[in-house]
Each structure stands twice: as structure tokens, then as C-alpha cells.
Design goal:
Elements lengths: L1 H18 L3 H12 L4 H25 L5 H25 L3 E5 L2 E4 H21 L4 H5 L8 H18 L4 H11 L4 H21 L10 H21 L5 H25 L2
Antiparallel strand pairs: 1-2
């Protein structure tokens, strides 16, 4: 199972390299169901893994001019603040027993996994839904709707903090719609934003009581980095939109599976 987990880690990187999102959507379930990591700790691990992997991908995209650093700054700052505060203060105050409904106890782990599954389903819908070719392919002058960009950045940051999701599936549409950014540049810019807020968010967990398995974390991250390098190379040959749709269906099935498992087979 450990070997399978590391092979799947490569898939995490390939997903980030090809479509700029989906890393954490795969990472948390792999860590929980394949590697046997506690769900709460898995969300912390996911921040480090996805953050480090996205940083490598962001640097690769910056070399070919597919990163807009001004947008990354304005979107990233509120997102970074929100994710750090969420990991450091919001997640720790969630009680171990959230609530009980008809003799069924919803624990902190179940609560976070169900929220994560709902995020997966929402992400799958954005991936499956066809994108307008104009927004995907044509170049437009980049314009800024600062209030919406700041609000969106903060909301994505809170989501990242709660469930360890990098939020690429939210960041990329926001950059395309709010900043009128071309799709390929939005993917590269998104990777830098994901890297910054995920890695800084992870530091919010370092002062917690959890014991971090650095060997597992670093090996999984290394495999994921190999994957993102492969993904960036494949992106030049594989039609991104077809892959994104297929991945969306996979994410939808996984999201439904997690909800059913956590609520009915825990």
C-alpha cells in the first residue's frame, strides 16, 4: 500500500502540472485511505505536499512567461493571511465531537472529510462543465477587480485552511473571470499562489501537538514533484480540456465515495 501511495503521489503532481489544480483533492484521500494518516493530520500534510509541488511548477511556468506576479500578490496576500489564521486558530477549536444526530456522532475527522468531499464535488462540477474557448485561448489585456479579487482570495484561504485544499479549481476561474487572464497564464499564476498560501498555512500546524512523520512527508512530496515535472511536459501534448473533464468525473465519484464511507460505513 505504501508503494501504491507513492505511485499515486506522482499522479498528484501530474494533475497539478496538467490542469493547475486537483493536487489536494487527490492528496488527502490518498494519505487517509492508502497511507493510513489521520484525516486532521492529512490536511496539514497536504498543505506541505501541494505547496512544495506547486512551487516547483510555478518556477517552471515563470521561466516561460506564464506567471503574472502582480495578480499573484493581490490574490495571494489575503489568501495567505486567511489560511494561516485558519490552521493556527480555527481548526484547533473544532471539538473532537462536533455534534450527534440520531445516535450518530459526527467527529472532527468525519466533519472535515465530509467538508472536503463537498469541496471535491464542487470542484468536479467546474471541471466537467465546458469552458468558453474565448476565455481559454485568446489573449486579453489584464484588468483588476480589486475588491472581488481580495474577497475571493480570503475565502479560498479559509477553505484551504479547513480542508488542506490548494484551491486551484477556485483560483483559476477567478483569475480568468476577475482579472481577464488567459487560461495558461492563470494556471501558472495559480501555482505560485497555491505554493505560498499552502506552505505558510502549514507553518500554522508546526506549533500543534501532532507528531509529523517527516520521512513520509518528504518522500511523498518528492514523488509529487516528479509528477508535476512530467505533467508540465505532458501538457504540451495532451489536450488539457479533455483531461480536465475526465479528471472531473473521477473527482465526482471520489467525493461521493468519501461521503458514503464517512457517514454510513465509519
Amino acid at each position: 500500500m505504501i508503494i501504491i501511495g507513492f505511485l499515486l503521489a506522482i499522479l498528484v503532481g501530474i494533475s497539478l502540472g496538467l490542469i493547475g489544480s486537483g493536487g489536494s483533492i487527490l492528496t488527502v484521500p490518498i494519505l487517509v485511505y492508502v497511507m493510513g494518516v489521520n484525516p486532521v493530520l492529512a490536511t496539514a500534510y497536504s498543505l506541505f505536499i501541494v505547496g512544495a509541488t506547486a512551487l516547483v511548477g510555478g518556477i517552471q511556468n515563470a521561466r516561460i512567461g506564464r506567471v503574472d506576479f502582480k495578480t499573484a500578490f493581490f490574490f495571494g496576500i489575503p489568501s495567505i493571511i486567511a489560511v494561516y489564521l485558519s490552521r493556527a486558530y480555527l481548526v484547533p477549536i473544532i471539538p473532537e465531537s462536533v455534534f450527534t444526530l440520531f445516535d450518530f456522532e459526527v467527529t472532527k475527522s468525519i466533519f472535515l472529510m465530509v467538508i472536503f468531499a463537498c469541496v471535491m464535488i464542487a470542484a468536479s462540477i467546474t471541471m466537467i462543465k465546458p469552458q468558453k474557448k474565448l476565455a481559454m485561448e485568446q489573449e486579453f489585456p489584464i484588468s483588476y477587480n480589486y475588491p472581488l479579487i481580495l474577497i475571493e482570495g480570503a475565502l479560498v484561504g479559509v477553505l484551504t485552511g479547513l480542508v488542506g485544499a490548494g484551491g486551484g479549481f477556485l483560483i483559476i476561474p477567478a483569475l480568468v473571470l476577475l482579472a481577464k487572464m488567459p487560461m495558461k497564464k492563470a494556471v501558472g499564476t495559480s501555482l505560485f499562489i497555491i505554493a505560498a498560501k499552502s506552505l505558510i498555512g502549514f507553518t500554522g500546524d508546526l506549533k500543534g501537538s501532532e507528531i509529523i512523520d517527516w520521512n513520509l512527508l518528504l518522500l511523498f512530496t518528492a514523488a509529487s514533484i516528479v509528477g508535476i515535472i512530467l505533467g508540465i511536459l505532458l501538457a504540451k501534448k495532451v489536450p488539457g480540456e479533455k483531461l480536465k473533464t475526465s479528471f472531473g468525473w473521477f473527482v465526482l465519484i471520489m467525493g461521493i465515495y468519501i461521503i458514503v464511507k464517512e457517514l454510513f460505513y465509519t
